[in-house]
Inverse folding.
């Protein structure tokens, strides 16, 4: 949307305002015209009256002279060209003088309104049509007295036609002026209303654009008047709305990412038990497709258990439902949201995969059982030998020495088991604590480990050959990695025949480092490959115990490798020896 909105007049409100203003202009013009005409008529009449009053003294003096002679007189020169008509009558109404008409031909004027009133009141005014001259006149009549006795009447008059023609011309000019003024005011009002109504229309258009989601729309908001203040407020409202929606979108995306990253499956259903949301973990757990949103929960597998969980949650029960889905043991629980008065949400179902917990519990049980068994065997032997020594005080020195050696062997075996258990516990905690690793040279660690086991190799006449392809550096804990290599060497020495060799190789590619330890022992059948790294697992249990093995060495190797972000693998065939390979991430640019 443009930063400045286009204006549109196609709105009834605009025309209502404009028509109202035009009506006010017309009413004002008509009222002004009527008032002006009335005032003009009054002013014209007043002007004519002032003109007559100015002529009245001279006419009165002339009338007294005429009335004194009682005869009709001709028009004197001073009244011949006058614009004022002068008429003199005697008390009986006989016209003695008239400067506009022949007095001898005029009828009796005593019945004229102005003469009747003047005879009674002394002076009178009248506007009427003159039958003698055929036009309207303004008359001013006065009684002429001498010694309080009426001698007759005199009348001065002026024709109204010239005055009315003049007034008519003024009226025409006034009408033309008012028409022009009205037209100008109409156009002015149009633009004034447009200016006033423009911000209203812009605000309405702006509101429609914002309602359609165009939150970048902006009004000018220039100035300090109310319209500008309103426009700035609307702009601020749009910005705040956009920010809130963006924050809401960010929160929604974060929630979606959180739900996607959860190890638990989450399903939201409405009050009709239709699926509103299901995360990827829940889909994988229930082996569902991606298009189940909006479908009833019955579309999913194990729906009865989930519905049962929802029904239980309505009663505020915290029951957990477990169900086996393929190789997974799932825990199903629900949170009912109907009490929150959210019409769109009915419940949230949480699915947890308890398979790992189940396996871990089994491992713990097996570990306790195996550890108890491994510890019980040497303790039982020690107890039995001790009892034998106590029960036979006359035992020969040779037999006693043999039994004491037996106790020493079992004590050493017990010590080895306890030490390996401590190591296993330590490296379990080591993996969980995630300590800060340093960059170390793996070649030096391998050399130290070989040196540590040099005497054992010499006793068994086994040669340990170290063949590094390059100097490799890794990020890790030096002591932990040394223990890992020592355990691999111990395993090779334990199962490799006397007079053979152990090959230690160190090589790398662009991303990883590979450390392998190969022996020439009897090899390991494929059926045992996945279990050799389990705690207390032995391929040949009798031989391992006879040789002093605890069954924990390779488990420690796996723990250390995992804590360093690496892995350990086995390659072996029966009769072909075994190769254990440690894979660690390469430190960029650290090879020499």
């Amino acid at each position: 949307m443009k930063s400045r909105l286009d204006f549109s007049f196609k709105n009834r409100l605009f025309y209502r305002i404009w028509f109202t203003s035009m009506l006010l202009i017309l009413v004002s013009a008509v009222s002004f015209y009527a008032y002006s005409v009335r005032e003009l008529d009054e002013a014209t009449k007043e002007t004519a009256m002032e003109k007559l009053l100015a002529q009245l003294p001279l006419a009165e003096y002339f009338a007294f002279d005429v009335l004194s002679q009682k005869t009709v007189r001709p028009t004197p020169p001073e009244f011949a060209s006058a614009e004022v008509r002068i008429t003199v009558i005697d008390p009986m109404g006989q016209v003695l003088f008239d400067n506009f008409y022949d007095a001898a031909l005029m009828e009796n004027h005593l019945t004229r309104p102005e003469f009747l009133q003047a005879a009674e009141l002394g002076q009178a005014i009248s506007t009427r049509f003159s039958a003698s001259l055929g036009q309207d006149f303004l008359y001013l009549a006065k009684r002429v007295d001498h010694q309080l006795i009426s001698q007759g009447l005199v009348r001065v008059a002026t024709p109204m036609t010239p005055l009315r023609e003049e007034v008519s011309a003024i009226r025409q000019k006034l009408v033309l002026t008012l028409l022009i003024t009205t037209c100008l005011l109409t156009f002015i009002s149009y633009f004034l209303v447009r200016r006033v109504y423009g911000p209203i229309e812009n605000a309405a258009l702006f509101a429609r654009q914002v309602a359609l989601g165009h939150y970048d729309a902006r009004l000018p908001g220039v100035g300090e008047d109310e319209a500008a203040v309103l426009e700035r407020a609307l702009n601020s409202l749009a910005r705040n709305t956009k920010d809130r929606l963006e924050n809401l979108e960010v929160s929604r995306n974060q929630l979606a990412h959180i739900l996607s990253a959860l190890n638990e499956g989450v399903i939201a259903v409405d009050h009709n038990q239709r699926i509103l949301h299901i995360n990827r973990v829940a889909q994988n757990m229930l082996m569902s497709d991606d298009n189940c949103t909006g479908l009833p929960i019955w579309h999913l597998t194990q729906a009865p258990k989930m519905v049962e969980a929802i029904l239980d949650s309505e009663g505020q029960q915290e029951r957990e439902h477990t169900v086996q889905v393929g190789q997974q043991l799932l825990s199903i629980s629900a949170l009912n949201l109907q009490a929150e008065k959210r019409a769109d949400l009915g419940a949230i179902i949480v699915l947890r995969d308890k398979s790992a917990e189940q396996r871990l519990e089994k491992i713990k049980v097996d570990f306790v059982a195996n550890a108890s068994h491994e510890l019980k065997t040497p303790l039982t032997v020690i107890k039995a030998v001790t009892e034998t020594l106590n029960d036979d005080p006359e035992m020969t020195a040779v037999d006693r020495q043999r039994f004491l050696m037996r106790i020493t062997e079992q004590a050493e075996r017990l010590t080895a088991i306890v030490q390996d258990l401590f190591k296993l516990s330590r490296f379990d905690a080591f993996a969980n604590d995630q300590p800060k690793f340093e960059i170390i040279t793996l070649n030096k660690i391998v050399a130290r480990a070989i040196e540590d086991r040099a005497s054992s190799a010499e006793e068994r006449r086994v040669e340990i050959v170290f063949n590094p392809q390059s100097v490799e550096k890794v990020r890790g804990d030096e002591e932990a990695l040394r223990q890992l290599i020592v355990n691999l060497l111990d395993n090779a020495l334990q199962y490799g025949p006397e007079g053979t060799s152990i090959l230690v190789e160190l090589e790398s590619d662009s991303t990883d480092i590979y450390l392998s330890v190969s022996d020439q022992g009897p090899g390991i059948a494929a059926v045992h490959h996945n279990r050799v790294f389990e705690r207390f697992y032995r391929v040949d249990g009798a031989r391992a115990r006879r040789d002093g093995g605890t069954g924990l060495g390779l488990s420690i190797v796996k723990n250390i490798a995992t804590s360093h972000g690496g892995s350990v693998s086995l390659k072996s065939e029966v009769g072909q020896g075994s190769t254990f390979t440690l894979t660690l991430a390469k430190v960029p640019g650290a090879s020499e």
Notes: The chain has four domains: 1-218, 220-254, 262-353, 373-585. The first strand starts at residue 85 and ends at 89.
